[in-house]
């Protein structure tokens, strides 16, 4: 997935090809301004105001107690970029906004947009980090309310890829026991259990994260098959031969190479013969020579982000496979996710 400005017309494509237009401005000013427009519109409930049908800008402003003129300008910006429809003087939801930007949609990302206000502040640290290289480990600075926003945001982020992962993951036939390490809201486990009727899952999560995670999980009505257990996978014994599958989703970017290797070794011991380790995360480039690979572009950006906020960063496919091999597992071919561009499912099997 290529980030930033994209040419739509022949003249725009020509201007980019000939380097006539200032692409850095399109990638920065236009991008961050429109990002804030979407976030502000979501927070103010402008999309929710259109839940039951089209309305004028004045009607939307009255319903959400916003300024009429400012509301109309925001609606027009959203309309111009494909986030709304317009007919007979009324703005309306389209397929995009109805799927992703309504709080009651099963695909909602409203909570993630809310958490991005916090992430926005974090990225102001890029300037200093570039000089001192010191990670801020922002998760330790979160207040209880920010932890709530963070976990709900991560639940939204899992909405699309969880179903795809469940459909494509090489879970052993007849699998009964899944360990979900750092799974927070448990939605990946929920979808895997729905896909595999005989499967039950335990989500191993830090104690401070569990109260909100349990609240989020409760709405899935899977409490008989997906449960939480307080612990720390880097410190706790995971047992020997207790699991048919172990899932580590969106977590390895928080750990350094030694921690990820030790975790892979623990998981290998915990797996039963024929069991599988499922690692899902954004993948970075293996080397600068691979920078033009579309599947690595987002991972390269997130590598910078996580290096600032969580002391580590994204990892390459080869790095993950090396940990899996060193732990005595046999890596399978990467599965690149369609619903989370730049992310891959890297599975490895314990030999029989």
Write the layout of secondary structure elements.
Blueprint: H1 10-17, H2 23-44, H3 57-64, H4 68-80, E1 84-87, E2 90-93, H5 95-100, H6 110-122, H7 126-132, H8 144-168, E3 177-181, H9 187-195, E4 200-205, H10 210-218, E5 226-230, E6 243-249, H11 257-270, E7 271-282, H12 297-309, H13 317-326, E8 329-331, E9 335-336, E10 343-350
Parallel strand pairs: 3-4, 3-6, 4-5, 6-7
Antiparallel strand pairs: 1-2, 7-10, 8-10, 9-10
Helix pairs in contact: 2-4, 2-6, 3-4, 6-8, 8-9, 11-13
Structural notes for this entry:
With 352 residues, the chain is an alpha/beta fold. It has 2 domains: 10-101, Winged helix-like DNA-binding domain superfamily/Winged helix DNA-binding domain (Arc Repressor Mutant, subunit A), CATH 1.10.10.10; 128-349, 3-Layer(aba) Sandwich (Rossmann fold), CATH 3.40.50.150. Helices cover 45% and strands 16% of the residues. It is built from 13 helices and 10 strands. It has helices at residues 10-17, 23-44, 57-64, 68-80, 95-100, 110-122, 126-132, 144-168, 187-195, 210-218, 257-270, 297-309, 317-326, and strands at 84-87, 90-93, 177-181, 200-205, 226-230, 243-249, 271-282, 329-331, 335-336, 343-350. Strands 3, 4, 5, 6, 7, 8, 9 and 10 form an 8-stranded mixed beta sheet that branches. A two-stranded antiparallel sheet has the order 1-2. α2 crosses α6 (110-122). The chain is globular, with a radius of gyration of 22 Å. The chain starts with 9 loop residues before the first helix and ends with a strand. The mean pLDDT is 92. Residues 31-101 form the O-methyltransferase dimerisation domain. GO terms for molecular function: O-methyltransferase activity; protein dimerization activity.
């Amino acid at each position: 997935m290529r980030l930033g400005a994209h040419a739509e017309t022949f003249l725009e494509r020509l201007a980019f090809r000939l380097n006539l237009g200032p692409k850095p401005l399109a990638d920065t000013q236009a991008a961050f301004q429109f990002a804030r427009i979407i976030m502000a519109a979501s927070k103010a409930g402008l999309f929710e105001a259109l839940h039951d049908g089209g309305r004028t800008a004045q009607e939307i402003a009255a319903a959400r107690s916003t300024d009429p003129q400012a509301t109309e300008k925001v609606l027009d910006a959203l309309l111009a970029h494909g986030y709304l429809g317009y007919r007979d003087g009324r703005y309306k939801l389209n397929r995009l906004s109805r799927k992703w930007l309504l709080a009651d949609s099963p695909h909602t990302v409203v909570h993630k947009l809310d958490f991005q206000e916090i992430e926005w502040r974090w990225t102001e640290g890029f300037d200093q980090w570039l000089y001192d290289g010191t990670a801020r480990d922002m998760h330790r600075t979160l207040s209880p309310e920010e932890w709530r926003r963070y976990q709900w945001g991560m639940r939204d982020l899992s909405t699309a890829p969880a179903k795809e992962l469940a459909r494509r993951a090489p879970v052993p036939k007849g699998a009964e026991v899944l360990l979900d390490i750092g799974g927070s809201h448990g939605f990946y486990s929920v979808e895997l259990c729905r896909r595999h009727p005989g499967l039950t899952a335990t989500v191993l999560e830090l104690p401070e994260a569990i109260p909100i995670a349990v609240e989020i999980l409760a709405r899935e009505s899977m409490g008989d098959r997906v449960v939480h257990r307080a612990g720390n996978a880097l410190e706790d014994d995971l047992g020997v031969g207790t699991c048919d599958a172990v899932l580590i989703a969106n977590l390895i970017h928080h750990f350094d190479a030694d921690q990820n290797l030790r975790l892979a070794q623990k998981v290998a011991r915990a797996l039963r013969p024929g069991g599988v380790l499922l690692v899902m995360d954004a993948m970075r480039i293996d080397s600068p020579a691979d920078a033009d690979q579309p599947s690595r572009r987002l991972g390269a950006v997130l590598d910078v982000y996580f290096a600032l906020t969580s002391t580590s960063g994204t990892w390459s496919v080869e790095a993950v496979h090396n940990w899996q091999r060193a732990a005595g597992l046999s890596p399978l071919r990467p599965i690149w996710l369609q619903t989370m561009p730049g992310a891959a499912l890297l599975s490895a099997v314990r030999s029989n």
